[in-house]
Amino acid sequence: MTPIPAVILLLLSTTATTTTLSSDVSALKAIKSAINPTTIPPYSCLASWNFTSDPCSTPHVTHFLCALSCSANRVTQLTFDPAGYSGTLSPLVSQLTELTTIDLSDNKLSGPIPTSLFSLPNLQTLILRTNSFSGTLPPTISTLKSIQTLDISHNSLSGSLPDTSSSLTLTRLDLSFNKLTGPIPKLARNLLELALRSNSLSGFLSNSSFSELTQLEVVELSENFLVGTIPSWFFLQPGLQQVNLANNKFTGIEISIPVDSDLVAVDAGYNKITGCLPVNFTAYPVLSSLSLRYNVLHGPIPEEYSRKSTLRRLFLDGNYLTGMPPEGFFSGKSSVYGSFGDNCLKSCPTSLQLCLKSQKPSSICRRANGGKVKLKS
Ligand SMILES: *[C@@H]1O[C@H](CO)[C@@H](O)[C@H](O)[C@H]1NC(C)=O
Ligand SMILES: *[C@@H]1O[C@H](CO)[C@@H](O)[C@H](O)[C@H]1NC(C)=O
Ligand SMILES: *[C@@H]1O[C@H](CO)[C@@H](O)[C@H](O)[C@H]1NC(C)=O
Question: In the Cβ-directed half-sphere of 169, how many Cα atoms lie within 13 Å?
């Protein structure tokens, strides 16, 4: 056996009795001092951050009990408890270059999200959900080389959505309940979940934004200002299971027959969609929930809808649908829950749950269907 040189022994012994890298300690100090001390309750995690001890050295008896995890002498996770902390997030957080997880959700942090945060090369999970962060996001997140989950929902972010298209790692993006504006840019191609509910996004659903997304399963875009026709390619995305496009300004919908599809639920209610109910929806093999309520749809309810055995929920109320509802819904075998009310249907028996809500007054129906629209001269 060759003897181990003394210098290596020395290195080994210093890593064994490891103390936290000093730039990590200074980052943690800055992070704690950016929190308003009156909002740090005695029982909270941050109250136990007492820098007379070393943050990463174990065992943690009274100090650094929670809100951080280390690997050797580096901080790898910053996970605040929901104690109601207010204040800001220190830009020195970017010194914690070994961070894989940041979760500060359900607090009252405000001010901008430091741009430096978006340079953390190992960050996989960034959750700032339900705080009061404001300002804009950087134009691209391409510097977050490992990001998988990005959830900054329920804050006050403004400006446009960042370009995520260069990320191959991002699978979950939730920026719902902010004040984001502008169109949906090109998206990360490995996304499984996209949630942008309740912002002020505008523009069309563009093929180029979604074109390479083969895994997308859940799309939540409700409560925005998206316009145009919901195009048929949108529903043909191969992984798609749940789509919520309700409460936008869509004016049309195109549905073509899929080769195969896992689409289970579609909500396109509360838009301005005109035309007839798309029969092709029934070609989606496992479709179980469909809402097109409160649009401007005309024509009859297709017979095929009543024969669609996978369908459990069907909301078509608040349109201008005419004719008699298909017999199949009233055969006693149908277990569809939903509503056909507030339309112009003939003989929708109010003894049936689907017809509980009454139909529109005939004067309104006459004007909408067949009644000539007078042009002002
Ligand atoms: C930090 O810990 C030291 C030693 O345990 C203690 O004397 C001091 O009061 C603590 N500081 C705070 C702010 O709790
Ligand atoms: C969508 O975009 C892709 C690639 O950009 C293209 O190949 C495809 O034909 C487009 N589809 C439609 C329906 O425009
Ligand atoms: C139904 O789908 C077929 C095939 O995809 C398409 O040719 C047809 O135009 C669709 N019908 C409607 C009303 O969109």
Answer: 16
Short-list 303, 359, 306, CA closest to 331: 306
What pLDDT does 367 receive? 84
- What does the alpha-carbon distance between residue 86 and residue 360 come to, in Å, rounded to a whole number? 51
Structure-derived torsion over alpha carbons of residues 81, 222, 209, 216, reported in degrees to the nearest 10: 70
Domain ranges for the chain = 224-237+246-377
Ligand nearest to the CA of 53: 1
> How confident is the model at residue 212, as a pLDDT?
87
From atom 6 of ligand 2, which residue's Cα is the shortest distance away?
Answer: 211
CA–CA dist 337, 353 (Å, integer): 8
Radius of gyration for the alpha carbons in the chain, expressed in angstroms and rounded? 27
Predicted TM-score of the model (pTM): 0.90
Please tell me if the CB atom of residue 50 comes closer than 6 angstroms to any atom of ligand 1.
yes
Summarize pLDDT for 313-333 with one digit per residue, the tens. 999 999 999 999 998 888 777
Q: From the CA of 106, how far away is ligand 1's center (Å)?
A: 27
| pLDDT confidence bin for 300, thresholds 50/70/90 | very high
Mean pLDDT score of the chain: 91
Report pLDDT for 141.
87
Q: Please tell me if the CB atom of residue 71 comes closer than 6 angstroms to any atom of ligand 3.
A: no
State the average pLDDT over residues 3-13. Answer: 47
**CATH number for the domain whose boundaries are 224-237+246-377:** 3.80.10.10
Quick one: which atom of ligand 1 is closest to the CA of 62?
A: 5
Burial class (CB in 10 A: 0-12, 13-18, 19+), 115: middle
What's the pLDDT score for residue 2? 52
pLDDT tens track for 340-361:
999 999 988 877 889 999 999 9
C-beta 88 within 6 A of ligand 3: no
Mean predicted confidence (pLDDT) in 225-250: 97
Q: 102 with 126: CB under 8 angstroms?
A: yes
Picking from 326, 320, 373, the residue whose alpha carbon sits closest to that of residue 354 is 326
Q: What are phi and psi of 116, to 5 degrees?
A: -60, -25
pLDDT recorded at residue 345: 94
What span, in angstroms and rounded, lies between the C-alpha atoms of 229 and 219?
A: 17
Which of 189, 181, 182 is CA-nearest to residue 164? 189
Task: Report how far ligand 2's centroid is from the alpha carbon of 284 (Å).
Answer: 21
